[in-house]
Amino acid sequence: MTQAPANDLSAYWMPFTPNKAFKAAPRLFVAAEGQFYFTADGRKVRDGFSGLWCSGLGHCHPRIAEAIAAQARRLDYSPAFNFATPDAFRLATEIADQFPGALNHVFFTNSGSEAVDTALKMALAYHRARGEGSRTRLIGRINGYHGVGFGGVSVGGMPNNRKAFGPLLPGVDHLPFPYDAKVSGFTRGQPDRDPMAYLAELEALITLHDASTIAAVIVEPMIGSAGVFIPPAGYLARLREITAKHGVLLIFDEVITGFGRLGSPNGATFFGVEPDLCTMAKGVNNAAAPMGAVIASSQIHDTMMDATAFGIEFFHGYTYSAHPLAVAAGLATQAVLREEGVYARAAALAPLFEDLMHGLRDKPHVIDIRNLGLAGGLTLAADPEGPGRRGQALFLAAYEEGLSIRANGDTIAIAPILTSRPEDLEDIFSRLGRAFARLG
Ligand SMILES: Cc1ncc(COP(=O)(O)O)c(CNc2cccc(C(=O)O)c2)c1O
Q: Which atom of ligand 1 is nearest to the CA of 408?
């Protein structure tokens, strides 16, 4: 066996990537530091998307890198079943301290998708443990993204993530997409619209199926993957009221909104709404190693504990749950977030970011702009040749201008590193302006 040549691209089948186009013109990162990536062909690329929403502290943060290196020399792996590390308990406590109310118990996973499937299974098992096993139905939302597990894809509402994979989970409904560009286009922050325009459907579903059959509703507090769509003021609070009234669990999928993206510890805190379960991943440990988690209310946790007199209370888990390297990165990340006041700094940057986002209004083909915290989305009018072409063209033009952004079809997302300075934001948007100029 000899070492494979670096230019042999055939064996790696890439995720969520047009593989043929990529392998014809690969974009290979070989290093990164702070706000920048460095490519195999000598480019320096500014990170305008915090990795994939996930590296809010920038890249190769020395404190995080050192923590992982030291951990790898001390304890590289601990069995996650029937054994544990003290640091796993420490990190769980530091996470729980940042969530409101009774959200007190953290179950570690290895990704957002695993966190979503864990939360859905926890919801079903909880109802069974309390003698309401008839509650098996789940409710997601049109255009929701909840990862790529069969559970997450079933409650998710983006057609491309669903159509190739058969019938999916039975007993799943979807709420309306809580955004209407005709009414809320180019809105700064939360649209001012009657939330019941989008939530009457939930009451109708509860009437149709009866609350006794419905386990949980899962939503992103801010819709990320579909292109940064912000629900109207009052929507999440009203959703909480309706679900609580009918004993339906509310799950916030905080994989994007957790740990600073909104200038807040999480969406539950930002919006002042307390769900029963939250998922998280990405920023929990600055994506320096794979990690996700679910935080559960004491009601859910204690009910499950009390329902099993002897033995395993929740038959679920992963080999790498609370992996020591991921936990070490997590503790270092949480220390930096806390000691460097990152949430407040991100909140202080949000008004400049909002102005810069909406300053794109007159760029070619821009038909909507949205923003909240340090998350921005814009929609391009589709090229008559077909959807997604303009989004991909702007993504490639940005790369030529030394900027990494995100294109999902014809929606573009911008997510600056949370510890950016104003001049970092200015540079993102000047590069983006030049990328638009390339589109002609
Ligand atoms: C709300 C939410 N839930 C679950 C996942 C899945 O997480 P994992 O990928 O770790 O399994 C996500 C992930 N979200 C995600 C991942 C990559 C790109 C983009 C984008 O918006 O372009 C979004 C997410 O945003």
A: 22
